[in-house]
Every structure is written in C-alpha cells, then in structure tokens.
From TrEMBL, chain A:
It comes from Acetobacter indonesiensis. Keywords: Cell shape. Pfam families: MreC. This is Cell shape-determining protein MreC. Belongs to the MreC family. Residues 126-264 form the Rod shape-determining protein MreC beta-barrel core domain.
Automatic annotation (TrEMBL), chain B:
It comes from the Bacteria. It comes from Acetobacter indonesiensis. The keyword Transmembrane helix applies. This is Rod shape-determining protein MreD. The chain crosses the membrane at residues 31-50, 56-72, 79-103, 123-146, 158-179. Keywords: Membrane, Transmembrane, Transmembrane helix. The keyword Transmembrane applies.
Length: 301, 188
C-alpha cells in the first residue's frame, strides 16, 4: 500500500462515492451516445452467463419433472387403493358366481337336464358390400367351404348382427337387423312378451306387434325369440329406447355401422324336426301376413 | 461509535500478521452481501418463471444495498455497489449506468445518514427507507422516460416501490441474523 497520511486517505475515501457517481453518469451518457457498444457489452455478459442460466433452467425442469412424478405416484397410490377395494368386491362376486354355477349344475343334474350341444361357429372378416338387393348388408369372407349355410346367425362382439341370406364358396352375404327387409321375432326380457323387430334402414330398428297391455319399457333388454324356429332363444340384441311417445325402437348392442369381424353360428335349428304325427292337421298357412303388415305400416306411417 | 478497547484498534499498524486463511475468511465476510446480490441478479435474470421477477429484482437489490450501507459499509463498499449496478444494467434491459447511478445514490444516503439511522427504531428506519425507495423508483422511471423521449406508464414504478418497501423487513431480519452469526464467529 502506498504510504499516505490518514488525512489524505480519509479525503480519498470521501471522494470515491462522488467520483463513482460521476462515472456512472458518464456511462449513462456514453451508453446513450453509442448504443451498439452498449448492446455488444450486454451480449458479452449474456454469453458469459449463458451456461449458468442453462444450468438453472435445466435444474428447474428436473425439479418440475420430479414433482410431477411424485404427484403421479400419489395418484397411483390412490388408484391402487381403489382397485384393491374393487377387487375385493369382485372377488366376493366371483365366489357368489361360482356357488351359483355349482347350484345350477346340481339342479340341472337333479332334473336330468338334456344339455344343449355347443354351436359350431366360424369367424370371418367383414368386407363392405355395395352390391346385392339389400340396403343394410355386409359381405363376409367365409363361405360354404368353411361351413357357412343360409340361415346361420351372425353375431358381432356383443350382440346379434344379422342372418346369412346367400352363400358363395368363399363369401357369404349377411342381412343386418337394420335392413328394411329384416323382420325378427324378439322377446322383451323383462316382461317375456313377444314382439317383432322391424328394420327400416335407420340405425335403430323399430319394435312392432307387442302386446298392448305390456308395453316395452325404456332400457329393457331385447333378446331373440325362438318362435319361428330361425333363432335360438336368448341371444342379446339391444335395449329398448323411445324415440318419441308410442314409438319404441331397439338400440343394438352391436356396432353395426363399423363391423370388422363376425362370428357365424350354426345353432342347428333346422335339424330339429318334429316327429311324425299321423293324423295331425297343420294350421292352415295364413296368406294374409304379406298384406297385413304393409297395411299396418301404411296406416301407422 | 464507542471506541474499541482492544489493542489493535488503538494502534492499527501494530497487529499480528494475518495468515492466508484469516485473510480469505475476512474477504469472504466482506464480500458476502455483494455475492448475495450478484447471485440474486443472476437468479432473477435466468429464464425461470418467477412472478414479478422484473420488479422484484431491483426491489431486493435496493433493499440489500441500503441495509448493508448503513449497518456495515465495510460489507458494501461504493466500488462494489457501482459494479453490481453496472452488472444489473448489463444483464437487464435498463439503459446502461442507470441502475448503477441509482444504487450509488441509495448507498450514499445510507452511508452519510448511518449514525442517525442506527439510533432510530426499526419502524422509523423502514419509513425512511420507504421514502428513499419510492424516490429511487420514481427517479428510475423518470430517467427511462427521459431516454425514450415519451411518458411511460408510472404504475410499474410504483409497483416496484411497493415491492421494495414490502421486501425490506424480511430481508433486514435475514441480514441481522447473518451478521449476528458473523459477529459470533469473530469472537474467539
């Protein structure tokens, strides 16, 4: 240190602040006069600090990710607890189901129940059908070679889709339940009332000819009926829905507008032949049905 | 100020030669506030989404400079204030030198009024600081208007002044605790 007297040092110390103030004013003026220089100085400082800022923002991102993970873990724990409770509940239901199945089996044994034969089925890919006489029909890539016959029942993943109407060697045409030519005998599951499901080319076929004292209930399940001998009883079709008062329709379970795979079942209904009954007079086949529904349709529409 | 009764205070030239470690220790103690401000400046200019960072940074810096200027000028020399102000200008977007100028003014007021301020109650010091901070923020706003040649909105400057006033008590509590710690350490 330069040896100076205390007085001089104190005087210098008092001068530092005014000098620095003057210097800062000078810098302000210089910065205003030469803006490019100031900007260059700023850029140098920013360049030097770049890695530090980078470190900070990456740390911040990591911390954010970590908190996100923690929150996610908390959510997972909650979900896990919920699933465990649900699983316990389901396990109870599983026990109930097993015991009911056992009981059912033992009851069937006691009654000498004749078991139904398991239906044979083939699965085929659906290709769009532009030809044919039907408006709502699909073509299945499985034909007589695979054992598909006219009158077999086509099921989608969760409900009835239609019936096989024509077969080729490698393809089969399936008339969907929504086609205007489709008339199916159905049963309303809650009331066990028969009805006819009439397709009208809309996504929801209508319900007709149900008993007037037991009307379909909104949300009621509709299943097939074995009245005409074409279907086995109890295949799920859909649920009842009222478009307007007095106009019940069926909302099908199967997604008929975009079918991709169909299972074609041969329930063997045609093999069931009633035994010969000599002297039995069959009911006279009614000639009217062709005209009656039409008249009704016209009358209602 | 009470005279220091120890020998070294009476005869400043005669004292045992400091070891390197002691010298480093002393330097670190003296530079602590400056390093704190530099860290705050870097932190707030980083692309981190802190709410109101643009106003909070000058508020914290002004409060820190004022506090150390009147309690411990040895921890906040004028040169350090000048360099920190310039650094703040370079990192931020204020015209070059403006922050340095304002910080030096705040530092000067704190330095020259320190013996008056030290005797006052904390609330009074806070009142003085509030006036000073408002004046500093308005001066900054005035300089910004002057350099841009048109009137800017005064609301951000007032917001900055409010932040300044609000941030002073917690910061002063923190710094009092810090230099009590340092004082305790200094005693053998």
């Amino acid at each position: 240190m330069i040896p100076v007297s205390i007085q001089v040092r104190q005087a210098l110390g008092k001068l530092v602040l005014p000098l620095l103030l003057l210097l800062s004013i000078g810098i302000i003026i210089a910065g205003q006069a030469d803006k490019p220089l100031a900007d260059k100085a700023r850029m140098y400082v920013a360049d030097a600090l770049g890695p530090l800022w980078n470190l900070m923002s990456s740390t911040q991102e990591r911390v954010l990710a970590m908190t996100d993970n923690l929150r996610e873990a908390g959510r997972l724990a909650k979900e896990n607890a919920r699933l465990k409770a649900e699983n316990e509940n389901l396990r109870r239901w599983y026990d109930v189901a097993v015991s009911l199945t056992r009981e059912n089996d033992s009851l069937k044994t006691a009654l000498h129940w004749i078991p139904e034969s398991a239906p044979a089925f083939v699965t085929g890919r659906v290709v769009a059908d532009s030809g044919g006489i039907y408006a709502r029909a699909v073509l299945l890539v499985a034909g007589t070679d695979s054992g598909v016959q006219v009158g077999n029942v086509a099921l989608a993943a969760n409900g009835l889709a239609g019936r096989v109407t024509e077969t080729g060697a490698h393809s089969a045409r399936i008339l969907l339940i929504t086609d205007i030519a489709s008339r199916l005998p159905v049963m309303l599951e809650a009331s066990h009332t028969p009805a006819i499901m009439v397709g009208d080319n809309s996504p929801m076929p209508r319900l007709m000819y149900y008993a007037q004292d037991t009307r379909p209930i909104e949300g009621e399940r509709v299943v097939t009926s074995d009245q005409a001998g074409a279907f086995p009883a109890g295949l799920p079709i859909g649920t009842v829905h009222y478009l307007s008062a007095g106009r019940p329709v069926v909302a099908p379970f199967a997604q008929l507008d975009h079918l991709s795979l169909l299972r074609v079942f041969n329930f063997g209904q045609s093999q069931i032949e009633p035994p010969e009954a000599p002297g039995h007079v069959p009911l006279a086949p009614q000639r009217k049905p062709l005209s009656l529904p039409l008249k009704n349709l016209l009358g209602q529409g | 100020m009470m005279p220091d009764p120890s020998m070294s205070a009476w005869e400043p030239e005669i004292q045992p030669r400091q070891t390197l470690w002691q010298r480093l220790d002393a330097a670190a103690r003296h530079m602590l506030p400056s390093i704190f401000i530099a860290f705050i400046i870097i932190l707030f200019s980083a692309p981190i989404p802190l709410p109101g960072a643009a106003e909070l940074l000058p508020a914290i810096v002004i409060a820190t400079v004022f506090f150390w200027s009147f309690w411990r000028p040895s921890g906040m020399p004028s040169v350090a204030v000048f360099i920190l102000g310039l650094f703040m200008d370079l990192v931020g977007f204020t015209p070059l030198g403006v922050s340095a100028f304002i910080l030096l003014l705040v530092h000067g007021v704190g330095l020259y009024a320190r013996f008056g301020l030290m005797r006052l109650h904390f609330l009074l010091v806070w009142g003085v600081f509030s006036l000073l901070a408002t004046a500093a923020c308005l001066l900054q706003w005035g300089l910004a208007c002057l350099f841009r040649f048109h009137m800017l909105d005064v609301a951000p400057a007032l917001f900055e002044a409010f932040l300044c006033i609000g941030v002073y008590p917690p910061l002063s509590a923190l710094f009092s605790w810090v230099f009590h710690m340092l004082d305790d350490k200094e005693e053998p």
